[in-house]
Amino acid sequence: MELNKIKPAGGAKHAKRRVGRGIGSGLGKTAGRGHKGQGSRAGGYHKVGFEGGQMPLQRRLPKRGFKSAQLKYNGEVTLADLEALGADEVDLLTLKAAGLVRELIKHVKVIKSGELTRKVALKGILATAGAKAVIEAAGGSVEAVVAAKPAGKLVAKAKA
User: Where exactly are the structural domains of the chain?
Assistant: First the structure.
C-alpha cells in the first residue's frame, strides 16, 4: 500500500448537488427552498426547538425531578469486584489504587452482586444488608465510619 494510491471505497463519495441551475435540473428557480418565508431567505435561521413563535415543546412540558450534584462523589463496588481485588483489608484508597472507583469518589457502598468466598475486612466503606450478610458469612467484617454529630444548641442541665 502506498499513500498516493489510497482511495475511498466505491460509492462513498458523490458530487455535491448543484442547485439553482435552471428548470431542467429539477432544482432550479427556488433551489429547493420553496416560496417565501424565513427558510427561503439568505441568512434565514431559527434556533433548535423554535416552533414559529408557538411555545416550544420543551417549555410546554412540566419540569420533573431533581438530580443531586453530590451523586458524582458516590460510588459502588460489587462483591465480585472485592473477590477479584485480592486484598484482605479494603478501604477507599485501596479501591482507588485498583481503579475500581474514580478519584472524585468520597463514599463507597458494596452491593450484593456476584460471589465472595474469601475473608475481607471493609474499613470506612458501607455495605447493603445483603452484601454485609455475605461478607460476614465468609468470615469478613464491615467497619463503617460513624459520622460525627453536628454541633447543635447547648441544652441546660436540669438541676437535681
Answer: 71-143
Q: Which amino acid is at 111?
A: I
Closest CA to 85 of 48, 122, 50, 34: 122
Residue-wise pLDDT for 105-139, tens only, equals 999 999 999 999 999 999 999 999 999 999 999 99
Cα 141 to chain center, whole Å? 32
CATH number of 71-143: 3.100.10.10
pLDDT at position 31, please? 93
Alpha-carbon distance of 132 to 141, in angstroms, equals 8
Q: Are 72 and 89 in contact (CB under 8 A)?
A: no
What letter would DSSP give residue 27? S
pLDDT of residue 154: 67
* Contact by Cβ (8 Å): 136, 129: no
Rounded CA gap, 84 and 113, in Å?
13
